[in-house]
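Troubleshooting log. The previous structure file for this entry was overwritten by mistake, so regenerating from the original sequence record. Sequence copied from the archived sheet and checked twice against the printout by T.R.
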Amino acid sequence: MKVLVTGGLGFIGSHTVVELQNEGFEVVIIDNLSNSSEDVLNGIVAITGQTPHFEKMDLRDKPAVHDFFKRHADISGVIHFAASKAVGESVENPLLYYENNINTLVYILQELQKKPEAHFIFSSSCTVYGEADKMPITEDASVKPAVSPYGNTKQIGEEIINEVCKVSSINSILLRYFNPIGAHPTAHIGELPIGVPQNLIPFITQTGIGLREQLSVYGDDYPTPDGTCIRDYIHVVDLAKAHVVALQRLLAKKNLEKVEVFNLGTGTGSSVLEVIQTFEKVSGQKLPYKIVGRREGDIISAYASTDKANKVLGWKAQSTLEEALTYAWKWEQKIRS
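Regenerated output below.
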């Protein structure tokens, strides 16, 4: 079985490539290297002993996408990660996000709908729920008006997939995940942000190792126990395994609908200050931080109900917050050594 992984050298993509190869899939990666490095291939090979086929390509190039699918007509499934993903940046540069996240999706689906059968896993996000009415968030929760262009591109992406699957041979699973963190336990691959990190954990580890002077905590006046935002932090390897399980479900024709939706998280919410304290515990590092103003686009609290994924997919997150932060710290130490 040949599988295309777009954005396959990125954080979640690379870990998913590893899990796919471990399950015997032949993997083809497309990545434009805008937020990743070709060196990640070395890490994948070090873990699996296999070299995936890699093509550097910008999926906004429609003729290139068409040519790719012509050359790889035997692709059985697509796992689509390639997208811009920073909430703050999307507020500042919305057109980049609409072009990169929507056009690329459309071009891939245009090629897939030509096939007699196609299987598509979409990297969605808990941002589609916006500020949810109650916790934990179930898949039945309302999709609220997005609070950022990034979140809106995920909502629009889901709508496009639903409409296309109704009138084509494509079957899809939308995976709405919460906050992926950590690194592979081998420390061969991990999160490698280019420039200033947009996510909390690499900012924490970079501060812990001395690369950043101090960590900024965006707001301490939220209506939460300690005043800081609450998120559901899931280890990236657990997340990667869920993508493989979802793809296997489609390939085995076990899906009950043309489009199925699953939340991926741990089911536990942790505040920013709790994450900082947990990191200090596992690393032995005191973390300098300061409270700054709230960040536009941030919601107060989001953590998942994982009952559906647990029961229907037979998948459950295994790693604790402590373990995920330990792997993230091990990775940071390795890349700075």
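The longest strand covers residues 118-125. Archived copy saved in two places this time.
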